[in-house]
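Q: I'm writing a short methods note and want an example of a predicted protein-small molecule complex. Could you take the sequence and the SMILES for pyridoxal-5'-phosphate and return the bound structure as tokens? Please keep the output block clean; save any remarks for afterwards.
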Amino acid sequence: MNGIEQNLIEILRQTGSRVTLVAVSKNHPVDAIREAYQAGQRIFGENKVQEILNKRPLLPDDIQWHLIGHLQTNKVKQIAPFISMIQSVDSLKLLKEISEQAIKNNRIINCLLQVFIATEETKFGFSQPELSDLLKYLNQNPMTGVKIRGLMGMASFTDNQDQIRQEFHGLKSLFDELKEQFFADQPGFNELSIGMSGDYEIAIEEGSTIIRVGTKIFGTR
Ligand SMILES: *Cc1c(COP(=O)(O)O)cnc(C)c1O
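A: Understood, no commentary inside the block.
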């Protein structure tokens, strides 16, 4: 049994069927993805459009690709035909483009709205007020090419477990509020993507439904 398979088994043993595991394969070669695939993993996350486009033709068709990194509007059309979920929606302009490209492809693309929860300046995402504004706007102006499935967030880059827990807790509260306020009649708003290699156990305790794990599966690179 190889290392990748062992790592996957270990993570699945810890998390069980409670959450969806996205294997973050960015910076790792297709051989590593193939090993994870052979161990049963089907959902992979990448943060760059070009990397998905390069790898996808070399791998099995039934892989579900999630985009988890910042997406430029002009690149949406390249992934619209196949992308399974875009977790990193961080502007109205981007959401509109995803919807337009989805419609052109006769698809409805699953999206998560990325929320800014960390203290660092560099992370992308909506603030809480921006998110309310966006959802009010969408109530008045529905977009038929996208389905908003929930929220995605990244905790601060810190060893302080209490801070990480607080940030996740805050995002879960926000998720519950928005669900009640804007999605009461839409059961599909049910995903909270929080938790990476270093913090997925805390994230699950705080209500994660999707964890995005790279290093702990594939090692560092
Ligand atoms: C790289 C990345 C991950 C995975 O991080 P690890 O610490 O390697 O598990 C998760 N989410 C996003 C948005 C990433 O860019």
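A: Remarks, as requested: The first strand starts at residue 20 and ends at 24. The chain is about 40% helix and 20% strand.
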